[in-house]
From TrEMBL:
Residues 1-25 form the signal peptide. Residues 232-251 have a biased composition (Polar residues). It holds the Pfam family WXXGXW. InterPro entries: YXWGXW_rpt. Residues 280-292 have a biased composition (Low complexity). Keywords: Signal. Residues 296-323 have a biased composition (Basic and acidic residues). This is YXWGXW repeat-containing protein. Residues 210-254, 269-323 are annotated as: Disordered. The lineage of its organism: Bacteria, Pseudomonadati, Acidobacteriota, Terriglobia, Terriglobales. It comes from the Bacteria. It comes from Tunturiibacter gelidiferens.
Length: 323
């Protein structure tokens, strides 16, 4: 069985290598068991005009399924829309059909990713000339900052049972098939995920807290406002911990000092590397963020509270090794 899976992955990888970028839409990997259900989360506010929503999804790595957080990203060019990837039963394994950019939104397995991706098409917005207009009925946009907006509530899924199933076909899967129109969209020229999207996926894989084997199918960071803003998300977690009384003043100070240190490290590395982080530097920053994320989780669930900070003097709120 292991050899069969290995051969299948090699064949799939070879096939992908032969696909031209303009027609990108293929299968990344095959797995013998289904991905977890989709987590419920709140969509972050759109960071600016021209960003399009990429819903979160379960990817697969060496240690199993891991969550790639939903994120706002810029398309590779004006007029393109994002078709999300999806898992589908292939008769002997679950196959991942890669997402892609194209002039229309194609078939994505009937999976209800939310925020405009209700299983068919995309109701979160549309291109109007050279600008993207956002449907504020289903996407989170600040109208005082972004003015290309409209409201169309007819696209909202009003079914009584909201399915969080994350795969198509097979036992328990969504029994949807491409329409004639979606089949025609599949024959259009497609563009592969941007380098920003690929880096986002790599960062998600590098964060162990995203693996279902660690989080039980409930990722702590389910969505970001844009790639590379994990620190913002963790600041929100700290603020919530302070409001709820779960984090003490000492624990909060410790986390904030470590976040500041990580920010300074990243800024210095970018300054020395032409404004960018190389792969090793990204891994270092991500590992330090992993350590902070773990501490926030421990701080919010230990015996220390704002009313009873008794354990702090005995070493509560773990520290990360200096870099």
């Amino acid at each position: 069985m292991g050899l069969t899976n290995l051969v299948r992955k090699v064949v799939v990888g070879a096939a992908l290598a032969l696909l031209p970028a303009a027609s990108f839409a293929g299968v990344f990997i095959s797995v013998g068991f289904a991905p977890p259900v989709l987590p419920v989360y709140t969509q972050p506010i759109c960071p600016g005009d021209g960003y399009l929503w990429n819903p979160g999804y379960w990817a697969y790595g060496g240690e199993g399924y891991y969550w790639v957080p939903g994120v706002w990203v810029r398309p590779p060019q004006v007029g393109l829309l994002w078709t999300p990837g999806y898992w589908g039963w292939g008769g002997s394994a679950y196959l991942f059909h890669a997402g892609y950019w194209g002039p229309h939104v194609g078939f994505y397995g009937g999976v209800n990713y939310g925020f405009g991706y209700g299983g068919v098409g995309f109701g979160g917005g549309r291109w109007e000339g050279g600008h993207f207009a956002y449907n504020t009925a289903v996407v989170n946009v600040n109208r005082t900052v972004i003015h290309n907006v409209y409201e169309d509530r007819t696209v909202i899924n009003h079914t009584t049972v909201y399915s969080r199933t994350s795969f198509n076909g097979g036992t328990g899967g969504i029994q949807a098939r491409p329409s004639a129109q979606e089949a025609s969209f599949a024959r259009e020229n497609h563009i592969a995920p941007t380098s920003e999207q690929q880096n986002h996926m790599q960062m998600a894989h590098a964060d162990r807290s995203n693996f279902a084997s660690v989080n039980g199918g409930h990722p702590q960071n389910a969505a970001y406002s844009r790639p590379g803003v994990r620190a913002d998300n963790q600041q929100q977690r700290v603020a919530q911990g302070v409001r709820s009384g779960q984090m003490t003043a000492g624990e909060t100070r410790n986390v904030e000092n470590r976040e500041a240190s990580i920010h300074n490290q990243a800024a210095n590395d970018r300054a020395a590397n032409g404004g960018h982080l190389d792969q090793q530097q990204r891994q270092q920053v991500n590992q330090r963020q992993n350590n902070v994320s773990k501490s926030i989780n421990e701080d919010k669930h230990n015996a220390n509270t704002q009313e009873h900070p008794h354990a702090e003097e005995h070493g509560g709120g773990g520290h990360e090794p200096k870099k």
